[in-house]
């Protein structure tokens, strides 16, 4: 499943190519609680069709009624971008279903350039990270390749939004847990690949939309062009496969690196990497293991939920309290049991 940003841009491009009027809406600022983060986008077609979202639904409804001819609106005409704000008053917050105290500022782009959308999507589809700039007064759009994701910014005159290829998940080991995790990652807009040199595992892989790679995992990681939007998870339970792949991953810019295993196995893995491969406690700080958040999971499906939650927290820059980790939570439970 493609990320929602790419869905919005691709749909807007297709509508423009079909000579349909389009409104491209971006969340530019938020105050207080907000249903969607800055940079979130939606596209509205002249007849009221919508892809993407900027709120829980009520603001979308208002935009549809304002700008779509099918719902009595004035329709979409060419013009410079506009800035609109919702939720300034308590009445507005209640009317538009915003959380208590929430306020949204939106940038509206009327009939964005089809060729510019083509150029942007071609760059994203080729795997490049692009900083899209919009100058409101002139309606000028700039596209600049960048190596580092930058924070969304809007100063009232210019808006900059860094857009990139989909986040990627590379899994080592094609077992049952990997199939559940792949399904969840696809649902969250990740491009997913699974590597396993064992034919009895990789040849029975059943999840559609996942790239299957047969090869030694360390070679695969090395050739994967790992970047800041890549996460790598070792799931094979075989040190011969997992350890060497993790070594390569630890010296890459991957935003998340993790390995399945019990607390004991995770500790033994760390000791092996330090003793035999010259890693250090500091270099292993990036290695998550046991992976996942503690939710008492027992089945592969439940474990996949906990792992995906930890990956998404890392992707979103959320620092989780230690009590959420599997190791600390189980240690706390055991301590309570021993004292009772």
Automatic annotation (TrEMBL):
InterPro entries: MoCofactor_Util/Proc (IPR052698), XdhC_CoxI (IPR003777), XdhC_Rossmann_dom (IPR027051). Residues 15-70 form the XdhC- CoxI domain. Coiled coil: none annotated. Pfam families: XdhC_C (PF13478), XdhC_CoxI (PF02625). PANTHER family: ALDEHYDE OXIDOREDUCTASE MOLYBDENUM COFACTOR ASSEMBLY PROTEIN, MOLYBDENUM COFACTOR INSERTION CHAPERONE PAOD. The lineage of its organism: Bacteria, Pseudomonadati, Pseudomonadota, Gammaproteobacteria, Pseudomonadales. This is Xanthine dehydrogenase accessory factor. It comes from Pseudomonas saponiphila. Gene3D superfamilies: NAD(P)-binding Rossmann-like Domain. Residues 169-311 form the XdhC Rossmann domain.
């Amino acid at each position: 499943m493609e990320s929602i940003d790419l869905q919005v841009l691709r749909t807007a491009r297709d509508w423009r190519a079909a000579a349909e009027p389009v409104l491209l809406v971006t969340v530019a600022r938020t105050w207080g609680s907000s249903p969607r983060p800055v940079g979130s986008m939606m596209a509205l077609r002249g007849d009221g069709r919508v892809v993407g979202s900027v709120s829980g639904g009520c603001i979308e409804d208002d935009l549809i009624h304002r700008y779509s001819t099918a719902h009595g609106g004035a329709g979409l005409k060419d013009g410079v971008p506009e800035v609109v704000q919702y939720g300034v008053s308590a009445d507005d917050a209640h009317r538009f279903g915003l959380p208590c105290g929430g306020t949204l500022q939106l940038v509206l782009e009327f009939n964005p350039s089809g060729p510019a959308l083509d150029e942007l999507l071609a760059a994203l589809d080729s795997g490049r990270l692009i900083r899209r700039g919009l100058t409101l007064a002139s309606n000028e759009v700039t596209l600049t390749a960048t190596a580092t994701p930058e924070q969304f910014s809007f100063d009232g005159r210019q808006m900059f939004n860094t857009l990139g290829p989909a986040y990627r998940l590379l899994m080592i080991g094609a077992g049952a847990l990997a199939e559940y995790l792949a399904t969840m990652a696809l649902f969250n807009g990740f491009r997913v690949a699974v590597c396993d040199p064992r034919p009895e595992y990789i040849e029975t892989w059943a999840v559609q939309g996942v790239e299957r790679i047969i090869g030694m995992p360390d070679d695969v990681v090395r050739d994967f062009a790992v970047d800041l939007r890549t996460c790598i998870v070792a799931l094979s339970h075989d040190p011969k496969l997992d350890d060497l792949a993790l070594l390569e991953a630890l010296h890459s810019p991957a935003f998340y690196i993790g390995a399945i295993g019990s607390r004991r196995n995770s500790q033994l893995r760390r000791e092996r990497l330090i003793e035999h491969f010259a890693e250090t406690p500091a270099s292993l700080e990036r290695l998550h293991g046991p992976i996942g958040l503690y939710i008492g999971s027992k089945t592969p499906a439940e474990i996949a939920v906990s792992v995906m939650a930890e990956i998404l927290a890392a992707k979103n820059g959320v620092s989780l309290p230690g009590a959420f980790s599997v190791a600390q939570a189980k240690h706390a439970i055991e301590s309570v049991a021993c004292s009772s």
